[in-house]
TrEMBL record, chain A:
TM region(s), chain numbering: 6-26
Pfam families documented for this protein: FixS
Protein name: Cbb3-type cytochrome oxidase assembly protein CcoS
Keyword Chloroplast: no
Source organism: Winogradskyella aquimaris
Keyword set, alphabetical order: Membrane, Transmembrane, Transmembrane helix
NCBIfam families per UniProt: ccoS
Coiled coil: none
Length: 57, 791
């Protein structure tokens, strides 16, 4: 069997896999709110510092 | 103190700030919130943004209804013994500090396990344990830190909202197929008759075929449905040639690969659908934080306190109010039904309804209309009607509110598609019959080629991309338009109707004029100082208007609610208030609001309040008068007639004393005479007129606060720009017409290949994306150019 079949199968599987991931991402609501997460991800760093400082007081 | 603004909310602290931990606060409420955050290690709230907070409101007893089982049921989205989830709408959410504090609610109440903010929608989704806490305490906690949720009658009916994500799915499917099919079809375009390719091309082709199946039967579904509906209604809308093109592309390609004639047009097919869906997606600009569908339900409370016959208080659902029920309305609560005031002093703010910001004083026995907000103390009233039959709410039984404005309106694309489709069919028939006589084998080929190449992708994309881009530009300039068809309607307007109060007048400031014996210096000193002590809205307004004076301590100060103020200082006994209170001899009634003044029981004179018009009103009207008929439609009396006449161009029609229904009928009448009406209003009393008009624009001082159902919301600060927005919409139509011309040129080129029977897949594969992309670029560049002129 020609190697082209293997290559094609792999490429289609990879493509479909990414497509399914996309569908799952849409379904979980990732695209519903595109703003809040961008702010939220900046918080973690800032929360820790003041906490430590108040505890050492 | 170098900085005199409140550490919590940023308001001016005045002369007596409350100092706590070396920080100044404007009121005890703000200080308390700070204390709460301070105790719980949450002061990071203030690091993210300067003074992000809001003053917490008085909430005593306000949320008692939240312990009612049937109301909790409606407000929560999930309920079990251990977990309850509720999504609450909080208008105050405005910065990153808000997100941070609301997502840290669990530190304030350990029984809240999770809270998640959606910034765009201004909602917080709270998960809590109902055994240890309840919805009421969550809401009270939120209110106590200045984030009062807004719970209205709308929440009661809404049920669970479904998010519609089909367009994203379809776009994903089409994009995925488009990309893959392109790769698969490339080899055949460039390596013709190569041995290696000859061997495998069948597999490549069937792979493309299988990839295109979901595109045709799922992603392009809407076009078939819409074309079918159009044909059934005897309309040749734009989706008819699209559906025809898609099906011909699919059938011909399948036949070609099945009989080994050629490679088919699968790449053009999926590309076409992908671009069309992209246009649809781009046009769909939504403002999560705005709602264009609001009716009275968004304003009205969900529950109200009923006084039972035995005197006990009970929270009942607003829909359960019956005629004759006794209701208790607290300070800052909305009156949900028409009724008669039985007990207490009513000071009713009808700004929701009329846009008029000055509260009206009501005595017991007076009739109160639904929609007013009590602003001073507790009152008791007896219901005269049920909610749906009240004076204001009755308006919504009018048919206008069930009508979809887009029905019966042929948009520019469908307008051109009528002629376009017929022309294409004629060309196809002529070309086919020519080839039938010259070379019959090619006839079918030519017929399908014409339908394929004429598939109006570029035409279908012109309007979505032009309007879509303009929607975004308008949005940035604080003119929030519901959808693309509103811009198109706006371009066809020939009559502009304005509401008066709250629309062309500003709620924030008004002016007053003094008539009578002029006051001595010491008298005006006392006047200014006595006004300082009063919280009555008229006093506040007058206080702001009068000249600055020194602060003195009054010997005596007394406020008679509903009458006026009495103040004494160094032998001057000043009375300020209603005519009868100050003992005015001449009771000449004016139509405007007045405040009378007397000194030592000698009548001095009166202050007459006039509406203050928004800046640029006169200029705007002068710009508009060249192109449009202008009308002022006011619910008020004629008190402002002379002022308006002076201010506005002579041809403006001024009509007063209009009830909400009258406004609606007025617009209906003019529409029947062929007018295309733009209604500009603000209050709930304009709701009918906004719905009836071709385009209804609501003016809003603060877009986060409520505005009635409308087609567009315009920020009050941009009011004077209205003319430019209308003109920009007109230019948008011109852009679309030019891009039609552009796409016709592409079609003529394509038709040349089609009619002569030389349409190879590679030509279609180049021509189709090229025309689509150049249209997108053309419209985007042009609309951006218009947008720059707007700024």
């Amino acid at each position: 069997m020609s190697v082209i079949y293997i290559v094609l199968t792999v490429s289609v599987i990879v493509g479909v896999a990414f497509f399914i991931v996309f569908l799952l991402a849409v379904k979980s609501g990732q695209y519903d709110d595109s703003y809040t997460p961008s702010v939220r991800m900046l918080f973690e760093d800032e929360i820790v510092k003041p906490k430590k400082s108040t505890k050492t007081d | 103190m170098e900085n005199n603004s409140c550490f919590h909310c940023g308001d001016d602290c005045g002369n007596h700030p409350i100092t706590f931990q070396e920080k100044s606060f404007c009121c005890n409420g703000c200080k308390t919130v700070f204390e709460i955050f301070n105790e719980n290690d949450l002061t990071c709230y203030y690091d993210l943004q300067n003074s992000p907070g809001a003053i917490p409101k008085e909430i005593e007893g306000k949320y008692d209804f939240l312990s009612k089982e049937n109301i909790i049921e409606k407000l929560t989205e999930f309920r079990s013994d251990e977990i309850e989830i509720a999504t609450l709408y909080i208008p105050h959410i405005h910065c990153s500090s808000c997100i941070w504090i609301l997502e840290n609610l669990k530190k304030l109440n350990p029984n809240i396990s999770d809270s998640q903010v959606n910034f765009g929608k201004k909602t917080v989704r709270v998960t809590y344990n109902p055994q240890a806490t309840d919805l009421k305490s969550v809401v009270i906690l939120l209110s106590s830190i200045g984030y009062e949720p807004y719970i209205s009658l709308d929440d009661f009916k809404a049920g669970k909202k479904q998010v519609n994500r089909t367009l994203i799915y379809k776009l994903g499917v089409a994009g995925f197929a488009f990309g893959n099919i392109m790769f698969l079809s490339f080899p055949e375009y460039f390596e013709i008759n190569e041995f290696w390719l000859e061997q495998y091309k069948h597999m490549f082709r069937w792979l493309m075929f299988s990839l295109s199946i979901p595109v045709v039967f799922y992603a392009a579904q809407d076009y078939f449905v819409s074309a079918y509906k159009g044909l059934k209604a005897r309309l040749l809308n734009i989706d008819v040639p699209i559906a025809l093109g898609v099906s011909v592309l699919f059938i011909r390609s399948t036949v070609e690969i099945a009989f080994d004639i050629g490679s088919g047009f699968f790449d053009s097919l999926s590309g076409l659908v992908f671009f069309l869906l992209l246009g649809k997606f781009f046009q769909q600009k939504t403002y999560d934080f705005l709602s264009f569908e609001r009716d009275y339900k968004s304003y009205f409370p969900i529950a109200i306190t009923k006084i039972e016959k035995d005197g006990s208080e009970n929270a009942i659902q607003v829909y359960d109010i019956e005629k004759g029920d006794r209701l208790l309305i607290r300070n800052e609560e909305l009156i949900p039904v028409d009724g008669i005031l039985i007990n207490g002093k009513g000071k009713i703010d009808y700004s929701f309804v009329t846009g008029e910001s000055q509260p009206v004083t009501k005595e017991s026995g007076d009739k109160l209309f639904a929609g007013g907000k009590q602003t001073a103390g507790v009152i008791e009233l007896e219901a005269l009607k049920s909610v749906e039959q009240s004076y204001l709410t009755q308006l919504w039984s009018n048919d206008v509110f069930n009508k979809n404005k887009e029905d019966g309106f042929t948009n520019i694309t469908n307008n051109i598609s009528k002629h376009f489709t017929i022309a294409i069919l004629i060309i196809a028939v002529i070309a086919t019959s020519y080839w039938l006589f010259t070379d019959a084998t090619k006839a079918m080929n030519v017929f399908t080629a014409v339908l394929i190449i004429a598939c109006p992708c570029a035409i279908a994309l012109s309007a979505p991309f032009t309007f879509g881009n303009l929607l975004r530009i308008f949005g940035k300039l604080k003119f929030y338009v519901k959808n693309a068809s509103v811009i198109e309607q706006l371009a066809h307007i020939n009559t502009v109707i304005f509401d008066k109060t709250g629309t062309i007048t500003s709620n924030k400031d008004s002016s007053a004029e003094y008539e009578g014996i002029s006051l001595s210096d010491s008298e005006s000193l006392v006047l200014k100082n006595s006004l300082r002590g009063s919280n009555h809205p008229l006093s506040r307004t007058l206080y702001n208007i009068l000249d600055e004076h020194n602060i003195i301590t009054l010997d005596r100060f007394e406020e008679h609610i509903g009458k006026g103020i009495e103040a004494k200082h160094e032998g001057i006994n000043l009375k300020i208030g209603s005519a009868s209170f100050v003992g005015s001899a001449n009771q000449t009634s004016t139509l405007n609001t007045t405040v009378h003044v007397s000194s030592n029981d000698v009548y001095k004179g009166r202050f007459t309040f006039y509406n203050s018009y928004r800046k640029g009103v006169a200029k705007l009207f002068n710009q508009l008068k060249k192109h449009f008929d202008l009308v002022i439609l006011s619910g008020d009396n004629e008190g402002e007639l002379e002022n308006l006449k002076k201010l506005l161009p002579a041809k403006t029609k001024l009509i007063f004393n209009q009830k909400p229904d009258d406004k609606l009928e007025f617009i209906k009448f003019h529409q029947s005479e062929g007018a295309k009406v733009l209604m500009v209003g603000d209050g709930l009393n304009d709701a009918g007129a906004l719905a009836q008009s071709d385009v209804g624009i609501a003016i809003s001082e603060n877009v986060n606060v409520f505005s009635p159902a409308c087609d567009a919301i315009l920020d009050a600060s941009k009011f004077k720009q209205l003319y430019r927005f209308i003109m920009a919409s007109k230019s948008a139509i011109k852009i679309i017409k030019w891009s039609f011309v552009l796409s016709f040129i592409y079609n003529v080129i394509g038709l040349y290949f089609a009619v002569t029977g030389q349409l190879a897949p590679v030509v279609a594969a180049i021509l189709m994306p090229l025309s689509s992309i150049s249209i997108v670029v053309f419209t985007t560049v042009c609309t951006n150019f218009i947008g720059r002129k707007l700024k």
